[in-house]
Amino acid sequence: MSANKAKGTRWETALVRLFRAAGIRAYRPAQEGFRDTGDLHGLDPFIGQAKDWRSWEAAIREGLDGAETQRVNARQDYGVAFVKRARRSTGGGYAVLTVATFVRLLLRLRRAEAMLSDVQLARQRAATAEDLAADFDALAKALSEE
Fold it and tell me: Would you give the DSSP letter of residue 27?
């Protein structure tokens, strides 16, 4: 395995650990055929493209282009590029969307929230507050030490 391939695999694995620590069943799919379906699955309605490159500008550009192609191949609604930041934790990396993807996601979120009842909305806000306070990097580290 080349050094770059190993670096990418480490980043993908770190992302999977972080998502699993948050209760999201992310996984790295086996590569299949000529139609790339992304680096991270189990993030429905997203497909994830992971990039750990020296140039974060190139990583964002290539990552987003790849994520948009791969979301179609994987039949998912949204593509996201996960870009590693040097000397930062996994949770400190970038999750990058195109502006069009952000708009579609925001519209979907607003429609979903409008459909919730007042009681459900209050419960959702309490759960969201818990999510915002969670340290997923610490949870991922604890899980990897088990």
Answer: B
Q: What percent of the chain has pLDDT over 70?
A: 96
Q: Which two tokens stand for residue 68?
A: 């948009």
In sign, the C-alpha dihedral spanning 70, 73, 74, 77 is positive
Alpha carbons 144 and 22: distance in angstroms, whole number: 13
Mark 18-31 as b/e (b = at least 16 C-beta within 10 Å).
bbbbeeeebebeee
Q: Which amino acid is at 72?
A: V
Q: In what order do the strands lie in the sheet with 46-51?
A: 46-51, 78-83, 94-96
List, for residues 32-91, the tens digit of each pLDDT value.
667 788 889 999 999 999 999 889 899 999 999 999 999 999 999 999 999 999 899 999
Structure tokens at 54: 């020296």
Using alpha carbons only, what angle is made at residue 125 by residues 120 and 128, rounded to the nearest 5 degrees? 125
> CA 142 → CA 44, 90, 106, 121, distances in Å?
25, 14, 33, 31
